[in-house]
């Protein structure tokens, strides 16, 4: 199958540079399989500092890809994250684009 064969199947395949910086792809991959994820859990699973996750989550929120909810558990403030529908679609399109790229590279010449 050639790359052009993939494009007819994968009309949503699109490179999205927002996923190519820092732990954004890892954060979104984590969130795509969940509803709301507590900030501390996301930070620990992504393996980044509070400030890095905060910065990248703000960038994703500004792009419309992430929803952030603040509240408290008892007297302790908490923050939860989840992908928006636009974020899920963008992640799916980016991953499809990466898969198509890999297939194109693996094609024998």
Coarse morphology: elongated
Mind telling me the CATH superfamily name?
Winged helix-like DNA-binding domain superfamily/Winged helix DNA-binding domain
Instruction: Tell me the number of strands.
Output: 3
What is the total domain count?
1
Sheet with most strands: 3 strands, antiparallel
What is the CATH-assigned architecture?
Orthogonal Bundle
Strand content: 15-25%
Helix share, percent: 40-55%
Strand order of the largest sheet: 1-3-2
Straight-line distance between termini: 12 Å
Number of helices: 5
Characterise this structure:
The protein is α+β, with helices and mostly antiparallel strands and 109 residues long. It has one domain (14-99): Winged helix-like DNA-binding domain superfamily/Winged helix DNA-binding domain (Arc Repressor Mutant, subunit A, Orthogonal Bundle). It has five helices and three strands. It has helices at 3-9, 24-32, 39-46, 50-62, 85-106, and strands at residues 37-38, 66-73, 76-83. Strands 1-3-2 form a three-stranded antiparallel β-sheet. Strand 2 (66-73) and strand 3 form a beta hairpin. Helix 2 crosses helix 3. InterPro entries: WH-like_DNA-bd_sf (IPR036388), WH_DNA-bd_dom (IPR027395), WH_DNA-bd_sf (IPR036390). This is Transcriptional regulator.
